[in-house]
Amino acid sequence: MKIGLVGCGAIGREVALAVDRDIPQLELSIIYDVEKAKIDFLLKSLVKKPKVASGIEEVMREADLVVEAASPKIVGELLTLASKEEKDLLIMSIGGVLDHLELLESIKREGKCKVFFPSGAIAGLDGINAAREKNIKSISITTSKPPQALLNAPYVIQNKIDLKNIKKPTLIFEGNCKQAVKAFPRNINVSATLSLAGIGMEKTNVKIIADPGITKNQHKIEIKGDFGEMEVVVRNVPSLTNPKTSYLAALSAVATLRKIVSPVKIGT
Ligand SMILES: NC(=O)c1ccc[n+]([C@@H]2O[C@H](COP(=O)([O-])OP(=O)(O)OC[C@H]3O[C@@H](n4cnc5c(N)ncnc54)[C@H](O)[C@@H]3O)[C@@H](O)[C@H]2O)c1
């Protein structure tokens, strides 16, 4: 299967190296990035050199499956192209889907392509997928971050929250996912993934805690439903090449590709 890569940053690089060296059923056939330096840096590390595209349309034409690891801004265009060209798509900038939910619905109806959303920086989507077969009563996510990681969030600025003087874990926001993505856009991928997998933006509860005692971002997901109750906690190590990205997110992209081609699939 020919893989096309859009975005050669932290996640794209991890995906490219895994496909190049470690997933023999896949071939990295074409790559693209708006920054030429990122392409050149990646090419140096690859054993088999892929073609370099001049834009995302060329990636879509050449590849069987396109991996997006670039920006939420191009997600709408990629969904449209994938449906038109009948090519599969793996999306990492999942927050970018929220403005194009109608496109996703038409892809579901028409069934001309497949779209994969890896679990990214969170865990527990396997359990949510199973739980969704019957009634889910509630889903909530509590994200704890070191105060400095929340400094530039619109909600913090608007509400003049003095993060520098927070001395103990402090709840600074509670609302639904729809409100949370506006208030804390850097949490958007996590919120979007959880909402798409579960019961939607309006019904998913989000709490944000500023915690001066932690160094790693932490997500605690709690679900209640006909199945019982589930709690999942993830404490994420940042990626070496992009500290804003959790290493687990890059690994989840690689694991999703591996699962697509594996004859044996474990977990829902
Ligand atoms: N799903 C999740 O849980 C999760 C977690 C972390 C990051 N992400 C998202 O995944 C994406 C990639 O993350 P990353 O850490 O690799 O980022 P990064 O900044 O390290 O790399 C992104 C790369 O994409 C390139 N790029 C930007 N706009 C582009 C465009 N229009 N066309 C082609 N290339 C473009 C940049 O030049 C850069 O090289 C981001 O949108 C990020 O928000 C998702």
TrEMBL record:
Reaction equation(s) it catalyzes: L-aspartate + NADP(+) + H2O = oxaloacetate + NH4(+) + NADPH + H(+); L-aspartate + NAD(+) + H2O = oxaloacetate + NH4(+) + NADH + H(+)
Protein name according to UniProt: L-aspartate dehydrogenase
Residues of the signal peptide: none
Pfam family, one: NAD_binding_3
UniProt miscellaneous comment: The iminoaspartate product is unstable in aqueous solution and can decompose to oxaloacetate and ammonia.
Catalytic-site annotation from UniProt: 219
Family listed: Belongs to the L-aspartate dehydrogenase family.
Listed GO MF terms: aspartate dehydrogenase [NAD(P)+] activity; NAD binding; NADP binding; oxidoreductase activity, acting on the CH-NH2 group of donors, NAD or NADP as acceptor
InterPro entries documented for this protein: Asp/hSer_DH_NAD-bd, Asp_DH, Asp_DH_arc, Asp_DH_prok, L-Asp_DH, NAD(P)-bd_dom_sf
Biological source species: Aerophobetes bacterium
Stated role: Specifically catalyzes the NAD or NADP-dependent dehydrogenation of L-aspartate to iminoaspartate.
Highest taxon, organism lineage: Bacteria
One record GO biological process: NAD+ biosynthetic process
E.C. no: 1.4.1.21
The protein's annotated pathway: Cofactor biosynthesis; NAD(+) biosynthesis; iminoaspartate from L-aspartate (dehydrogenase route): step 1/1
Binding positions for NAD(+) per the UniProt entry: 121, 189
Stored Gene3D superfamilies: Dihydrodipicolinate Reductase, domain 2, NAD(P)-binding Rossmann-like Domain
Domain Aspartate dehydrogenase, residue spans: 166-254
Domain Aspartate/homoserine dehydrogenase NAD-binding: 7-118
Keywords associated with the record: NAD, NADP, Oxidoreductase, Pyridine nucleotide biosynthesis
